[in-house]
Amino acid sequence: MIDFSILPVYLTAVIALLLIPGPDMLLIASSSLSYGKKVGVFASLGNATSGVMLTLLAAMGVSALIAMNPFALEVLRVLGGAYLLKMGWDCMRTQAADAPEVEQQSGLAMTLYRRAVISNLLNPKALIFFVLFLPQFVSSQITATSGEQMLVLGLLLNVLGLLFNLFLVTMVGSLGQSLLKNDKFRTNQHKFMGLIFFILAIWLLASQIPTP
Hints:
- The chain has 212 residues and is mainly α.
- The protein has one domain.
- The protein is built from 9 helices and no strands.
- Helix 2 runs antiparallel to helix 3, helix 2 packs antiparallel against helix 9 and helix 3 runs parallel beside helix 6.
- The chain is globular, with a radius of gyration of 18 Å.
């Protein structure tokens, strides 16, 4: 399904990309720091879920069609920015008394899972990334179609990304355990996440969308 001769180059490129700080890393790290490892794990799973969906779209050629429509990309960017602003506003309005206990975070974990999925799907730069990155490693030396190769390459990227994010959650979540027991921090933890969502919204709305 993939040309193993290009696999070392592909893996090197993927590792380099994972180490570059981005909005996904910021969301997962801040979720782990603010609410603990469980919430960070669910945010990581949400990111991986959206990555698989984008991989499927790229393999079917749908993402390329969307990426070639500047209006569609602009709509995605505005919707994504508006969604993140709403999430930030909701967090800012949440009362400190609503902060969940560490052992009662199932509902919050699912919330962060959904937010990670939606925010990534509404990010046109994530869509274009799959359009621009995966085809570079499609080989004409094997019988598999370009769609099949992009599917395997994308799934491999998502597996490695999930493993990296889970490692990040473990590291950051461990640092945040003492914060979660601090009453002053718990009073402001929702506001901290609200600020993160505002930063992500500005990041998305102010960024230039690359032309495929």
